């Protein structure tokens, strides 16, 4: 018993006062992309397009634009661009309310990395304020590789302490306000995902976490379904998209808070 | 026979009759070889079957191939480790192993060349059933109560006692092996890293090794050390998490809570290497993409020591608790004989006294293994799997720290990446065996006439080891299932691919 208490004292208090304090994330972490406008004239071979594993980039008259819903944040395009116009900031808050808002055009704002709650990209498809005080989510892993699931799971641990925001993972869809989906949705999970979603009472929300769930990610070309959540659930059912492969846990937490945030005072 | 670090020409692999292939494999397995892989490869004259066998004592591999036609006599009755490979052959290529004791689909996917839509999904099949007045059946999944991957479990119970557990997977099947063949080269490595996301380093190392062995590229020692560092960090994170989960399932909550956090500390160290907590985007054929300078090595070594201290302290208080030990002892036993016969790998096998560890059996380079030892236990129960993880925590932490020191001292002396020719040589086969944290990750790559992939086989340790969970549950209480399950913590997507 004494050993347990001694160890408890050693282990200390670890919960971070997020979002009022910026989490420390590795300097090598690739966050929000920043795309400097360019004509791409000097780059005949379209170096970034040739480098991107998931075809997340497009070249427009104003230069490249990047679809975070497909992006693996692998930095291959950053290395490939001969003009150095594609870079990644350290900003971890990437969630969006619409698929379209995941497409990044232009440079990231200078003050992007300020701590605090930040409005997610795009506009809500419907009013989500009903869920602000308490949100119970049923997690559905539909072909995920377990990395997204691990980063969703880890939010329950001491550092993140999801419970203090009134957010919990429910064991049954009937007890949930919505589902959080990871994975590209394989053919063999299609029915289970639909059933789970249908079992959640109205009004309900859907959060798609990870490149897989948003677009199929690395498994997009599969013969076994794998087109992401929106290839199975009806149009307009996804309320929040959290990009990354896998997203950092802080990115996921920010994504969930873009639904379940009621004003807290800083501690 | 060939050296495991070399590739062989496809045409040098003897083509024999399917019966000869089977008796060859059975004979070898009787003499302590292991069935490494058995899978189909398309050829103009029908599906060829390739069989790879491994002898760890001599570090030799052997390969034979055959054209079985539509059916052959199953080797599973004589060589149980073939059971799942034969089911896979049947499902994917329609080759029927006559006399297989339990010929069911593995992933509930259509056969190659068959219609893609018509199928019964997993969970819609017949199960092994025990009949009797007081016997009942319990079904769990695919969607579980926690945040985990989907799978279906069917228990045959007599009262609380489990007579039989059938594990049905396939929900996660993404057709990943086929995707490897059809995807552009730049997408292949990310797919490998996503085969089983908690073993990204294991699978990426295996893939890179296959490519390097095919192309005859030697990577630098520095790259090997960086890869080993990442692999041991992966082991540390996963073992720490599993030990916490075992604490959670025995009701010992302090360790469960602390280990959740400490797992994150290890993952965050990996993230310092490459920006991703799961080591995505660290490796590449030819070496690694990111190097470490002396200062970063020093600060990471410090963080590693602190995380290890926390993990050790947290696990030790759990292992000193007599109620925890009582709960773990004797629960979910797998016998040495079963482990050998089923061809279990990794930690699950070592906890039953089967001495397999690819780090020592099939080293990836000539560097000394340092503090890494083949840790063994003999009781095969949850306790053995727990203590084994606890022992490996020590080894891996010491190894990772030593590697960080070494990398710090020698920074700048050697590059961490060499170039790899764009095209691979035509019609060759190479194998890689990497000891991921669960066990041996085995990849086999075969190139076609144009040097692109003709076949690519991925065997995650979970492929072999799921059956061990079923064996562990025999005769146990159904309430032991969560604890037994955590003590293996197998991958669903690694199995389903
Ligand atoms: S970082 Fe994203 S956009 Fe750039 S190459 Fe990688 S996947 Fe493509
Ligand atoms: S998005 Fe990436 S990390 Fe998440 S489940 Fe898919 S492959 Fe795994």
Distance between the termini of chain B: 29 Å
Low-confidence stretches of chain B: none
Instruction: Please provide the ordered H/E string of secondary-structure elements of chain A.
Output: HEHEEHEEEHEEHEHEH
Percent strand of chain A equals: 5-15%
Query: Any idea what the CATH architecture of the largest domain in chain B is?
Result: Orthogonal Bundle
Shape of chain B: globular
What's the pLDDT, averaged over the residues of chain B? 90
Tell me, what is the CATH class of the largest domain in chain B? Mainly Alpha
Provide mean pLDDT of chain A, rounded: 86
Bound molecules: iron/sulfur cluster
Question: Based on DSSP secondary structure assignment, what is the total number of beta strands of chain B?
Answer: 16
Quaternary state of the chains = heterodimer
